[in-house]
Write a structure and sequence with these properties.
- The complex is a heteropentamer of chains A (about 130), B (about 250), C (about 500), D (about 80) and E (about 500).
- By secondary structure, chain A is mainly α.
- In chain A, about 65% of the residues lie in helices and about 0% in strands.
- The longest helix of chain A has about 30 residues.
- Chain D has one domain.
- Chain D contains three helices and no strands.
- In chain D, helix 2 packs antiparallel against helix 3.
- Chain E has a domain of about 220 residues.
- In chain E, about 75% of the residues lie in helices and about 0% in strands.
- Chain E has a two-stranded antiparallel sheet with strand order 1-2.
- Chain E is globular, with a radius of gyration of 21 Å.
- The chains are: A mainly alpha (about 130), B mainly alpha (about 250), C mainly alpha (about 500), D mainly alpha (about 80), E mainly alpha (about 500).
- Chains B and E meet through helix 1, helix 2, helix 3, helix 5 and helix 9 of B and helix 1, helix 4, helix 5, helix 6 and helix 8 of E.
Chain lengths: ~130, ~250, ~500, ~80, ~500
């Protein structure tokens, strides 16, 4: 059974779904962002499992290590970028949260987006009547 | 109701993804497409071609250097974005709630931190410079410096730590990673190769290994400094008190 | 296309010349109203002159062509002056000249906007007339649609706005259908949108259903402008709402742009053989007959003069459709010639209605008692044209009816003759009361029988400005002259006989 | 042995993820999330990715967590009650 | 190979580096920042124009970064279609940048001015990189720069609605990015490669069809959110209408299209169009959603009272057009979709900038307030009308040409219902666009809100607006210059 063999992948997919569920269904925006991070980490986990080789060693050739036994370095290189991206998005999201909380006094999306219909028309220049 | 729908959607997605996981190439098998296609050349040739023993560093900085240039641009964008949202602090006037913490930290903690932070910074410098041989590299080192700043800030307060790394130091260094990459890239073009070519064709073959090594180190330093400063700036920006931030209600 | 085809910039000049008015209006000082407007009229005259300058060449059988832009092979913007297109452009430029002159004294507010859009419309319509393929035709046709919108709402009354809105809704829907037709044509016509002397589509490239789709989408698309019956809804609203010169042009030319499109589709896209093969002409004929009869009946019930004229136009334009659907030499000849004939007659009628409106402020026929004495020249011209509409010889209306009747006999379908006769009767029924009211009734005539001395005197010379009267007289004169000397070169017969002669040898 | 350890790690990962998602105290959730990141880093070390383990420990467990904590201090610590 | 082979990479990196250097200038002389920010974009545009003619319609320019040949290093691959879109991006960014200073000076408070220009340049550079890259992971990296900068730019005014809209955008955008990352991982696991050209060869011989199918689905969902494909569009009306107008123009005119282009690139260059087993079902579903988008966007746009929200919904509708063209899998449909990207970019940018002019001069946002606007702002209203006519697809604007080819492509593929949907979309567009034009020109100004001679927008704002409007006309009349080559290039892609 391939799924049992690929249990790393399965675990990554499961974590991905937990994260996505949090993003979609939880109402607290900090929770949503935690869910986002869980999603991201799970995908990184998936990538790293992808590069794994049975009985492999880290891809560092110090001391004449055997290249044939090394794990795949490409996913690791990609994920390094991925982690940076993740922390960047998180930082931006959290600063938006700080600003939102100051302006709305809530972290609950339902309350945040409640008066949306009235809000859309305000816009940058505020009231439009001359 | 909404939650139920979300749950149903997630269950469907989970089923789909697990189905994929069951149909993917077996993990760890040396005959996988991932293990047979591009990899062998990297593993065999990295040491000769990029002069780094750590293959990952070779890939990050050399084979896929362009990605990393994108990466440092991402983190610079994050800084620009955070600053655009929260606004940059004014020079010299920076405070945060940690400065007014009601629980004064004990002398032991203060001493330990005073003692530890230089060590952490030293470790990060090692991580940056030694990246092509051992695990680590520019960004990891930068993140560790950022971590050290966090520790310092939580104990001594934002005012103290922003005196240690004042804005006029951070400000020019925030973009150093992108600029370094660009310079190295353009030098590669001037040297007769393509953008980001480290081994310039116009240089004698004997000099090329040294050139590649030095350029790699240069880029590592650029990434490390840039990453550290960006993370610190983001942290300071988020942690400081908000009387400066324009509230447009 | 005929053999002798030469490159020439004149078509482009003719299309661009009306823009002269735009320049004049924006450039000249605000106060010099007369100067500005007369310069606009001069622009229209120059356009007519340019169009006229092509006459000898066209009569020799030449064509002139110029390529404007090309999208890909088979999809290009090209202006080509062939006999049919020239025929349309001539009457168009002529009528436009008269209407522009007429407008100078008719339009009393926002004349800048009106003249600019008049000129733009003329430009686009000449573009339509000179189009070398359906693609170009469609582009100019759509532009013309939007250019004519400001003309309709010029009065800016609530009624005008409503009419304009209705017009836009109809026109845009029609444009979309037409767009579909063009894409379908391009698709099933093997990537060709050009006009051929015997049609370009054939059953080789596409099935019957496909070709019928193309035909009926074209018919529906152009049918809105040509006011074929279920699609005529905007016409009776737009005509009364628009200023009279604009109504004259709407009825005389813009409706004809739709009819002209149908002529192009029948002659140059499908060709007579293919139409006969597909039997689409039967549908056309049925629609045309219904339109002719029903529109005339509706016209009877209208009291508003311009509204009655509008319904009359709906019926008359369908003469063209009917003539085409006969697929016979005389029928086609009569139908296509009716394009000009009707433009002359209806243009004159609407201009007369304009004079009545300006001088007496009367819109409804029942209020027009004795008006023929106040405005004798106008009402005489009106009567001439109205009689011509009924088909009284010697007039252009008679020529049309004669040819159509002959065509229906040629096609072996005498039932059309009955339709024509019924239509003529109904025409008489709705035009004669107007003439009667104008000349044989006057205020207070019902009080006592036989008190003829109360009849007002004919008041010649005290009518409207010359700018308004002269075009009316010219048109009325032409209605008779063209009806007598039919075969003079430059009159409709000289062109149409050539076109039809090729198709029905 | 290896597989069993992996499974234990994975079970811990799922458990911490669920705890982080369902904890009502936001600060607790964030701290649990940093534990999750640390376990992830260990897992990656087991998968022969030392570079990433280092990065995740520094960034995922360190910087990200601090950013979250800062935000929570600046906003509120508890989730708002469900209100219909 | 002359020096021009370096041009694509310079086009991409010059704006990025200048963005990084811009804060220094802001530190020294803040007043110079807006003008200085024009320089890198002009350079990129110039380099792009110099590339015209160097790339044949049926070939491409491949640039190996670091000198590593493709499967090993990253490749920048500029084919004819790519160059076309690069030029569109450069041109519209440049014009939006020219538009910015006056407008932004009014809406954005002082300290953030430099940040605005930095983010703007980063966004433009990232778009260029996103379009030009030939590597799927690189695609992701540039997508993230784009995403980050666009979130921040939506929120840049600091207005509470703006922050909320930006956060909504982020909440949908960030998970979609992760989905793209997962999709790239699945793709990599089945093929072992990241280079697009190499991938398409490896996919053909890969046995892991299920993995590829799901990978494609995730790509579609991920980029679908970025491109605001119908059921995933919820963020768009808020973000596009609340952002400052030049940013709305960038988001609506470029960002959305660039995302659609990425999907096009993946569909044709990576998963290869004929591969029904992998993309067949998904592309059918995309067609259905795109058709729904055309209708939904049009109907919603008709119902709006706010000008910018209306334009934003119109964007949703037009994204549907582009996807209907792509999924027709014919060269005509594809060329139509590409041409529509040009046309829609020009027209939407123009509409949003016109809305910006109106907001700048009068502060009006509601459509009702536009009654009689013509008296005071003739140029703006005129440009708006031209762009709106292009949105409807009336000749002789570029919108007509693209719509013609989109419908023709769906004809060729014998997808009658979709051709019909496109026509209905045109009618809907006519309804919502003509209403605005009608208000502007033909409705009396009862409130006396607009005064004749009250002054149109300043010249630095009018110039880009009028250029964009003229562009829609120019590319409508002289479409022959481009569409022929686009058809060839599309045939090459198939």
């Amino acid at each position: 059974m391939r799924l049992l063999h690929n249990y790393h992948y399965a675990a990554a997919m499961l974590l991905f779904c937990i994260g996505l569920y949090t993003v979609i269904a939880r109402r607290n925006i900090i929770k949503k962002l935690i869910g986002l991070n869980i999603m991201e980490t799970s995908v990184f986990f998936f990538y790293i499992s992808l590069g794994y080789l049975d009985g492999g060693i880290a891809p560092i050739r110090t001391g004449g290590a055997d290249p044939a036994r090394m794990v795949n370095p490409i996913p690791q290189a990609l994920i390094l970028t991925g982690i940076v991206v993740a922390v960047s998005v998180t930082a931006l999201a959290l600063s938006l949260v700080i600003l939102l909380y100051r302006q709305y006094g809530t972290l609950d999306v339902d309350r945040l987006y409640r008066d949306e219909d009235g809000g859309t028309h305000g816009g940058p220049s505020g009231e439009d009547a001359p | 109701m909404k939650n139920l729908l979300a749950l149903l959607f997630i269950i469907a997605l989970a089923a789909l993804l697990l189905y994929v996981a069951a149909n993917m190439p077996p993990m760890g098998d040396p005959d996988n497409p991932t293990a047979t296609h591009v990899i062998p050349r990297y593993l065999e040739g990295a040491e000769k071609e990029t002069h780094t023993e750590n293959v990952i560093t070779g890939i990050i900085l050399n084979y896929r250097g362009y990605d990393t240039m994108g990466e440092v641009t991402v983190i610079f964008s994050a800084l620009a974005a955070v600053l655009a949202v929260l606004g940059r602090e004014r020079r010299g006037r920076i405070h945060a709630y940690v400065d007014r913490s009601t629980v004064p930290s004990s002398v032991i903690v203060r001493t330990m931190v005073r003692f530890l932070v230089p060590l952490i910074v030293l470790f990060s410098v090692y991580t940056i410079l030694h990246g092509e041989i051992s695990p680590g590299g520019g960004f990891q080192g930068g993140a560790i410096i950022g971590g050290s700043m966090i520790v310092f800030t939580t104990i001594f307060g934002l005012y103290e730590s922003s005196r240690r790394i004042p804005q006029k130091v951070r400000f020019p260094l925030e973009g150093s990673a992108v600029v370094t990459f660009f310079l190295v890239g353009v030098l590669g073009m001037v040297g007769g190769g393509n953008f980001l070519t480290y081994a310039w064709p116009r240089v004698a073959a004997g000099l090329q290994p040294a050139l590649v090594t030095w350029l790699t180190v240069l880029v590592e330093i650029g990434i490390g400094l840039g990453g550290a400063m960006v993370l610190t700036s983001i942290l300071f920006c988020m942690i400081r008190e908000e009387e400066e931030i324009a509230v447009v209600a | 296309m005929p053999d002798k085809s030469a490159f020439s910039v004149i078509p482009l000049v003719a299309v661009l010349l009306p823009w002269f008015s735009l320049v004049v209006i924006t450039a000249s000082p605000k106060k010099a109203r007369g100067l500005r407007l007369w310069l606009c009229a001069l622009g229209a005259l120059a356009t007519f002159g340019v169009v006229l300058s092509l006459l000898p060449g066209i009569l020799d059988g030449n064509t002139y062509t110029i390529k404007l832009a090309s999208v890909v092979e088979g999809l290009e913007m090209r202006l080509t002056v062939d006999t049919l297109g020239y025929y349309f452009s001539l009457i168009l430029a002529f009528l436009w000249l008269l209407a522009t002159v007429y407008s100078i004294s008719y339009i009393d507010h926002k004349e800048n906007r009106f003249f600019v859009f008049m000129a733009l419309c003329e430009s686009f319509l000449i573009g339509c007339a000179f189009s070398a393929n359906m693609f170009t035709y469609f582009i100019f046709y759509e532009l013309m649609t939007f250019g004519s919108y400001p003309l309709i709402i010029h009065e800016e009354t609530a009624m005008a706005r409503r009419a304009g809105y209705k017009y836009l809704v109809y026109a845009i829907s029609a444009g979309t259908v037409l767009f579909f037709a063009i894409v379908a044509h391009y698709f099933w016509g093997d990537g060709q949108l050009g006009f051929g002397s015997y049609g370009v589509l054939s059953l080789e490239f596409a099935g019957r259903a496909a070709l019928m789709t193309v035909f009926f989408t074209y018919l529906a698309g152009f049918g809105v402008k040509a006011a074929i019956m279920p699609l005529h809804g905007w016409v009776p609203d737009a005509h009364p709402a628009a200023p009279s010169p604009a109504s004259a042009l709407l009825s005389g030319v813009i409706l004809k742009a739709g009819a002209f499109g149908i002529i192009r589709v029948c002659f140059n896209v499908f060709g007579v053989e293919l139409m006969r093969d597909l039997k689409v002409h039967v549908v056309m004929a049925v629609l045309a007959c219904i339109t002719i009869v029903v529109a005339s009946v509706f016209a009877l019930t209208q009291d508003n003069l311009k509204r009655r004229l509008a319904y009359s136009s709906i019926g008359q334009v369908s003469y063209i459709i009917l003539g085409l659907s006969m697929l016979s030499h005389d029928g086609a000849l009569g139908g296509v010639m009716h394009l000009t004939h009707h433009a002359l007659m209806k243009g004159c009628l609407f201009l007369c209605a304009g004079v009545i409106l300006v001088k007496t402020g009367k819109k409804n026929i029942s209020d027009m008692k004795g008006i023929g004495y106040k405005l004798p020249i106008t009402m005489i011209c009106f009567s001439v044209c109205a009689l011509a509409m009924m088909g009284t010889p010697p007039s252009v209306g008679f020529i049309t009816k004669w040819l159509l009747g002959s065509g229906s006999l040629e096609a072996g379908l005498p039932v059309y003759v009955i339709v024509l006769l019924v239509s003529a009767l109904l025409n008489a029924a709705y035009f004669l009361p107007i003439i009667y009211t104008a000349f044989f009734r006057w205020e207070g005539d019902e009080a006592e029988e036989g008190e003829e001395h109360h009849r007002p005197k004919l008041a010649f010379g005290k009518e409207a400005d010359h700018e308004m009267v002269v075009p009316i007289v010219i048109l009325a004169a032409l209605v008779v002259i063209v009806g007598i000397w039919v075969t003079v070169p430059g009159f409709p017969y000289s062109f149409v006989s050539k076109v039809v002669g090729i198709i029905f040898p | 042995m290896g597989t069993a350890l992996n499974l234990v790690f994975i079970a811990l990962l799922v458990a911490t993820a669920l705890l982080a998602v369902f904890a009502r105290d936001l600060l607790a959730a964030v701290i649990i999330f940093s534990v999750y990141s640390l376990i992830m880093a260990l897992m990656w070390q087991r998968l022969q990715a030392p570079d990433l383990a280092l990065t995740e420990a520094a960034v995922g467990a360190g910087v990200t967590t601090v950013l979250f904590v800062v935000t929570i201090f600046k906003t509120r610590r508890r989730e708002e009650e469900e209100k219909e | 190979m002359g020096a021009y082979r370096h041009f694509p990479i310079l086009m991409i990196t010059v704006p990025l580096v200048c963005a990084v250097l811009l804060p220094f200038l802001g530190y020294l002389r803040e007043r110079w920042v807006p003008r200085a920010a024009l320089v890198p974009l002009s350079v990129s545009t110039l380099l792009g124009l110099l590339l015209v003619g160097k790339i044949p319609a049926q070939g491409y320019l491949s640039y190996h970064l670091g000198g590593w040949e493709p499967p090993f290093g990253i490749e920048i691959r500029v084919d004819y279609i790519g160059l076309f879109l690069l030029l569109v991006v450069c041109g519209i960014s440049l014009l939006a940048m020219v538009f910015s200073p006056r407008y932004i000076g009014k809406e954005v408070s002082g300290g953030r001015l430099t940040a605005y220009y930095v983010l703007f340049l980063l966004m433009s550079g990232a778009m260029l990189g996103f379009v030009a890259t030939g590597d799927v992971f690189n695609l992701f990296v540039f997508m993230e720069i784009l995403a980050l900068t666009s979130y921040a730019l939506v929120a840049i005014t600091g207005n509470r609605n703006a922050v909320r809209a930006a956060f909504k955008y982020l909440l949908m955008g960030a998970p979609s990015s992760i989905m793209v990352l997962l999709a790239i991982g699945l793709l990599y696991s089945a093929t072992g490669s990241l280079n697009m050209a190499d991938l398409s060869a490896r996919i053909a011989e890969s046995g892991y069809t299920e993995v590829l199918v799901v990978s494609f689905i995730l790509f579609v969902i991920g980029f679908g959110v970025k491109a605001a494909l119908f059921p995933l569009h919820m963020w768009l009306p808020d973000a596009h209408s609340i952002a400052p107008s030049p940013i709305s123009a960038m988001l609506s005119g470029l960002l959305v299209e660039v995302s659609a282009f990425a999907l096009l690139r993946l569909t044709f260059s990576v998963f290869t169009a004929g591969n029904d087993a992998i993309i067949g079902g998904t592309s059918e579903a995309v067609s259905v959603f795109a058709a729904a988008a055309v209708l939904y966007g049009g109907i919603m746009a008709i119902m709006q009272k706010d000008l910018k929200v209306m334009i934003a919904y119109s964007t949703i509708s037009h994204i549907g057009y582009i996807f209907l063209g792509i999924t027709s899998f014919t060269k005509e449909g594809l060329a139509g979709a590409m041409y529509h990207m040009l046309d829609h970019g020009l027209a939407k940018a123009c509409l949003f900038l016109c809305a910006g002019c109106i907001i700048y001069v009068k502060g009006y946002r509601r459509i009702e307030d536009l009654k009689g606007a013509w008296r005071q702002m003739p140029w703006t209203c005129f440009a708006f009308s031209v762009a709106a006519i292009s949105v409807i697809g009336i000749p002789p604007t570029a919108g007509f040409i693209s719509k013609f080819y989109l419908i023709y492509g769906n004809f060729t593929a014998e997808r009658w219902p979709y051709a019909l949907v496109l026509l209905v979309g045109a009618i809907l567009a006519a309804v919502y666009c003509l209403r605005v034009i009608y208000y502007m020109f033909f409705q009396p100004d009862k409130r006396g809100a607009w005064e004749e001679g009250g002054g149109d927008a300043p010249a630095s704002m009018l110039a880009p607006v009028c250029l964009l409007a003229a562009g829609t006309l120019f590319f409508g009349v002289f479409s022959g210059l481009i569409i022929d080559s686009l058809l060839k290039a599309a045939a090459f892609l198939l």
